Here is the input.
Amino acid sequence: MNKTQTFGKSPSKIVLFFKMILILAGIILIFTAGVRIITFLDTNHLKIPSALFAIVWGVSTVVLFYTGVNWIVEHFSPKWTARIQPYIFVGPAVIILIWALTLPVFRTLISSLKDADAKNWVGLQNYKYAFTDDQMLIVFRNNLLWLILGTFFSVFLGLLIAVLADRSKYEKVYKSIIFTPMAISFIGAGVIWKFIYNYKGQGVETGLLNAIVMSFGGQPHAWLQIPFWNNILLIVIMIWLETGYCMVILSSAIKGIPEELLEAARIDGASETTIFFKIIIPVIKGSLIAVTTTVAIFSLKTFDVVQSMTGGNYGTNVIANEFYNQRFLYYNIGRASAIAIVLLILVVPVMIMNLRQFNERKVF
Here is the structure.
């Protein structure tokens, strides 16, 4: 059948119409049957068969959907095919994003205006708590420390190492060592550094930091229980993790600078410091902003390190951890939702800045 043909009353077009109906019905039937089979397997605790079936069924259903629906759309007129076809491929992803991201945001916003059980309306009382409670003010202070110190030192050290390692014949070795922590999860890093900061208080210390202090004649301390400074020690873990990421991205950007440009500057008598600030920094500005905003988002959403190291005690609590406490320890849905919305409001502008910078980046 010619692609330019449209539906009419001829037998061939009626047959085509029924074929389309059968394809759509088949897709719906396979999807529904698959859901029921997975439900049956999960109910009977057959985890491995359930996982294997989900993989095969999921991939097959997706392939069948795109193949079948695309075949249907290609039998419309060229005008309508061009209009509908993009939505066939993008539409499911958009629907999933709306279902998984947009709808939960609205539900959370509604819950933030209700009481602890999310039943009765309380207006802005939860937001009043978020911005006036003494403990919440400490939480915001801590997140500000993470945002400023964590982001600055991660990017600064990443840039410094990228520049210095680029001049060494052991560049790959140095970068591999610095990048290794990126392979460790935040929880794993928390466990590792908990041994470093460990304090027993019984005369025999196993923590690396206390061992170093005692070797110089000092006294051991419960480092994670010292207010304010314990936040700095936790931020050190983030810096240790994120420096490698910053180094790799910035090193790649630096290597993209034409060598002729740098050589011309040296011939003109420019010092290495001048080259760094007048040439390298302006050229990699886009990558520098992208890396900074990405690390800033991580610092605002930090949770794993605090939860695994201190649980938010001793004045180390942060926004994400307080949300966890309110929702899963105190069962206060209203306050937890308000805190989640506050975190979203803080993160979204940074994300927009990051995306804007990414879109404006030019490829030479």
Observations:
- The chain has two domains: 11-111, 126-360.
- Residues 1-10 have pLDDT under 50 and may be disordered.
- The two ends are 47 Å apart (CA to CA).
